[in-house]
């Protein structure tokens, strides 16, 4: 399948400051909203995971039907992937008693295997060229792996290694800043993007736990409900602006 035969435009939004803000907030919502549904609403890990998997399947089906990027659909998929990725790691850790060391290693291997298969078939890992169905499948499977890995790695750093939510947030934030510096210095753009993309997940998870957890556990005690609501409002606003810009751009296109 090639670009000409599909007639697709790139299916991933332009990577701007707004992109990274929405991405980080989406990862935080994945952590807090998953806790809200599983604990506060009382669905538990099983029901929450099934519901999110069904919603994600529907959102991805809608995403794959489009031949150009629709910001609201794209970011809906990202939020749902974030929630489901959190649930997958939580089930492995809390239900199946899988060590965070093991889950982090397994998700790392799965991510590397996904990248290897993607590159072997497409010879390109850039998100600027998601213009065929196969590339988009590779893209979303990679995104799911990054969220699951980021959740496991973040929990490993903040809980198993005892860094705490505050220090974890600072460390992962500093690592993302280092990615920005590396990009400015001319390091490969595709490599820097995917490293930063993976790191936003543990940053968002650490930030979410820092905001929601009780003071006794090292958090600020805002709770999952308020944190999720505030972050979702900001996401809605930013995605709304992006959607308006996309519609206007299509109207002005020749």
Share of residues in helices: over 70%
| Biggest sheet statistics | none
Distance between the termini: 26 Å
SS summary, helix count: 9
Strand proportion: under 5%
Uncertain regions spanning at least 5 consecutive residues: 1-5
Written as H for each helix and E for each strand, in order along the chain, the element string is HHHHHHHHH
Which structural class matches the secondary elements? mainly alpha
- Would you count the extended β strands for me? 0
Mean pLDDT: 89
Q: What kind of assembly state do the chains in view correspond to?
A: single chain
Output the radius of gyration: 18 Å
Count of spatially separate domains: 1
How would the global form be characterised?
globular
Can you put this structure into words, describing what you see?
This protein is mostly helical. The protein has one domain (12-240). It is built from nine helices and no strands. It has helices at 3-6, 17-40, 44-65, 71-95, 100-122, 133-160, 164-184, 189-212, 224-252. Helix 2 crosses helix 4 (71-95). The radius of gyration is 18 Å and the shape is globular. The two termini are 26 Å apart.
Give a summary of the structure in a few sentences:
The protein is an all-alpha fold and 254 residues long. Helix content is 79%, strand content 0%.
How is this fold's topology laid out?
Layout: H1 3-6, H2 17-40, H3 44-65, H4 71-95, H5 100-122, H6 133-160, H7 164-184, H8 189-212, H9 224-252
């Amino acid at each position: 399948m090639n670009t000409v035969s599909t007639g697709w435009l790139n299916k991933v939004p332009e990577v701007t400051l707004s992109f990274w803000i929405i991405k980080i907030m989406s990862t935080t919502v994945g952590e807090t909203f998953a806790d809200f549904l599983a604990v506060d609403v009382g669905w538990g890990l099983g029901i929450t995971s099934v519901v999110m998997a069904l919603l994600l399947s529907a959102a991805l089906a809608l995403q794959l039907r489009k031949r150009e990027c629709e910001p609201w659909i794209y970011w809906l998929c990202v939020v749902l992937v974030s929630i489901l990725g959190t649930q997958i790691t939580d089930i492995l850790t809390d239900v199946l008693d899988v060590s965070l060391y093991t889950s982090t290693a397994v998700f790392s291997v799965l991510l590397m295997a996904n990248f290897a298969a993607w590159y072997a078939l497409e010879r390109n890992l850039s998100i600027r060229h998601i213009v065929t169905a196969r590339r988009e499948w590779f893209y979303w499977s990679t995104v799911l792996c990054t969220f699951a890995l980021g959740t496991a790695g973040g929990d490993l750093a903040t809980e198993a290694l005892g860094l705490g939510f505050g220090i974890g947030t600072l460390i992962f934030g500093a690592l993302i800043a280092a990615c920005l510096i590396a990009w400015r210095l001319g390091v490969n753009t595709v490599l820097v993007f995917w490293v930063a993309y993976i790191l936003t997940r543990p940053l968002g998870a650490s930030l979410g736990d820092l905001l929601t957890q009780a003071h006794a556990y090292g958090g600020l005690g805002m709770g999952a409900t308020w944190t999720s609501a505030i972050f979702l409002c900001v996401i809605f606003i930013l995605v709304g602006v992006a959607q308006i810009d996309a519609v206007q751009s299509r109207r002005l296109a020749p």
